[in-house]
Amino acid sequence: MVCTRFQSDGMKLLDGEMTGEEKTLYEDHIRECEDCRRELEDLGLLVEWTNQLRLKLPDDSFWEAYWDGFYRKAERGTGFILLMAGIAGLCLFAIAKAVTSPGFLTFTGITITVALAGLLVVFISVARERYHERKYDPYRKVKR
Ligand SMILES: [Zn+2]
Q1: pLDDT tens digit string along 104-131?
Q2: Each residue's pLDDT tens digit, 6-52
Q3: Are 44 and 65 in contact (CB under 8 A)?
Q4: Number of continuous H segments (helices) and E segments (strands) in the chain
Q5: Does the predicted model carry a pTM greater than 0.70?
Q6: How far is the CA of 108 from the centre of ligand 1 (A)?
Q7: CB–CB of 29/60 below 8 Å?
Q8: Is-contact 56 106, C-beta < 8 A?
Q9: Phi then psi for 107, rounded to 5 degrees?
């Protein structure tokens, strides 16, 4: 005959839901019952694994840092797209101007102006990004 006490009492014991007296009684039984002993060993391992998994789950600060990094990346991505769109717009403008311009010299002048303006935008953007990054870097205060 197979003992099935581990299904009810065993789980209670592992979950820490037994009173002192219940625990003592069941522990006495475990010593004499091979079924309970074997099953509890298996269940115990399972509970141990579950606890270990729970410990490995990331805590709130991990997610905060993760989302913070995500937003910063998204922000930078948006800035980059806007910058690219701006440069593309300037290029289109210059091309349109060049097409309608009467002379090559005017085209060169506009192109150089646009290129300089683009460079200026890039430098301002990079400078602002660096400043922003340093100001809000969540890892700055974390010692590693
Ligand atoms: Zn038993």
Answers
A1: 556 676 676 677 677 667 766 766 776 6
A2: 888 888 887 888 898 998 898 899 889 998 888 888 877 766 666 66
A3: no
A4: 6, 0
A5: no
A6: 93
A7: no
A8: no
A9: -60, -45
